[in-house]
């Protein structure tokens, strides 16, 4: 039996409504802060596609009001489950905006765990969007990594690994400085963008945005968006995969 749900979150963003729209309504903008690869046909009734790990989920745009409102609904699964998203943008003084996300639909049998994970994840991605708009305005990610690791039920072990990987204290807060410490990658200075113990930690470098996540069903995930001209994608993935494997062996 399916369970209806609704999650309602909002955040103030350091960008105009038009800049926010570019980041949430077009594939390259979305890919610069969200997970996987996204495509949106830019009109009401257009098709949406989000691809993660070789799996593509499609949907339909149900509202297209540039600079104001975007909504789309995923296709219904055989068990009746689906998800829908609505973004509402409100301009504020000083060239900033408030973005409200309403995420609803029908969840399956383990709906309580899914709901908890979605509630945490939705706000994390809004914070990631804010970091993107603040520090990489007008830039498009040239390489995106979404790398799932093992299931690790020990929250404190995961949090310790996250903070060690970024070279920061376990009491870390936004604005703290550290140093990326992943074997196989060049050590570099990082600044913490957001932290929510024990579930996620986000940081940026001069040309990249990172997030380490302890997500649904205790899966550890590493995400990275690169904004420089070119990187060795295979080398980056090998290094992060080795870090995930060895850290949580």
Total number of helical segments?
A: 5
Extract low-pLDDT stretches: none
Shape: globular
Can you say what the CATH homologous superfamily of the largest domain is?
Answer: START domain
The third-level CATH topology of the largest domain is Alpha-D-Glucose-1,6-Bisphosphate, Chain A, domain 4
The order of strands across the largest sheet is 1-7-6-5-4-3-2
Domains (count): 2
The CATH architecture of the largest domain: 2-Layer Sandwich
Alpha carbon gyration radius: 18 Å
Protein structure class: alpha+beta
* H and E order: EHHEEEEEEHEHEEEEEH
Q: Can you identify the CATH class of the largest domain?
A: Alpha Beta
What's the pLDDT, averaged over the residues?
96
Helix content: 25-40%
Give the structure's gist in a few sentences.
Helices cover 27% and strands 41% of the residues. It has 249 residues and is α+β, with helices and mostly antiparallel strands. The protein has 2 domains: 3-135, 2-Layer Sandwich (Alpha-D-Glucose-1,6-Bisphosphate, Chain A, domain 4), CATH 3.30.530; 143-247, 2-Layer Sandwich (Alpha-D-Glucose-1,6-Bisphosphate, Chain A, domain 4).
What does it look like?
By secondary structure, the protein is of the alpha+beta class. It has two domains: 3-135, START domain (Alpha-D-Glucose-1,6-Bisphosphate, Chain A, domain 4, 2-Layer Sandwich); 143-247, START domain (Alpha-D-Glucose-1,6-Bisphosphate, Chain A, domain 4, 2-Layer Sandwich), CATH 3.30.530.20. The protein has five helices and 13 strands. The strands form two sheets. Strands 1-7-6-5-4-3-2 form a seven-stranded antiparallel sheet. The protein has a six-stranded antiparallel sheet with strand order 8-13-12-11-10-9. β4 and β5 form a beta hairpin. The model has no long low-confidence stretch (mean pLDDT 96).
């Amino acid at each position: 039996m399916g369970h209806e749900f609704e999650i309602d979150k909002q955040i103030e963003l350091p960008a105009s409504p038009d800049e926010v729209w570019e980041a949430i309504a077009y594939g390259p903008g979305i890919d610069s802060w969200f997970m996987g690869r996204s495509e949106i046909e830019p009109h009401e009734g257009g098709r949406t596609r989000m691809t993660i790990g070789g799996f593509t989920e499609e949907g339909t745009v149900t509202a297209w009001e540039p600079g104001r409102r975007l909504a789309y609904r995923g296709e219904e699964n055989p068990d009746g489950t689906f998800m829908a998203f609505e973004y509402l943008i409100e301009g504020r003084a000083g060239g900033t905006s408030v973005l409200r996300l309403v995420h609803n639909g029908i969840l399956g049998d383990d709906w309580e765990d899914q709901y908890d994970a979605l509630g945490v994840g939705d706000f994390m991605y809004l914070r990631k969007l804010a970091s993107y708009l603040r520090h990489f305005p007008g830039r498009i990610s040239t390489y995106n990594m979404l790398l799932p690791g093992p299931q690790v039920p020990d929250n404190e072990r995961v949090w310790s690994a996250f903070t060690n990987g970024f070279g920061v204290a376990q009491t870390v807060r936004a604005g703290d400085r550290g140093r990326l410490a992943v074997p196989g990658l060049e050590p570099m200075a990082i600044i913490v963008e957001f932290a929510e113990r024990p579930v996620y930690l986000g940081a940026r470098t001069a040309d990249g945005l990172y997030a380490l996540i302890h997500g649904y069903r205790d899966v550890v995930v590493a995400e990275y968006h690169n904004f420089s001209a070119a990187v060795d994608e295979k080398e980056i993935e090998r290094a992060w995969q080795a870090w995930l494997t060895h850290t949580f062996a």
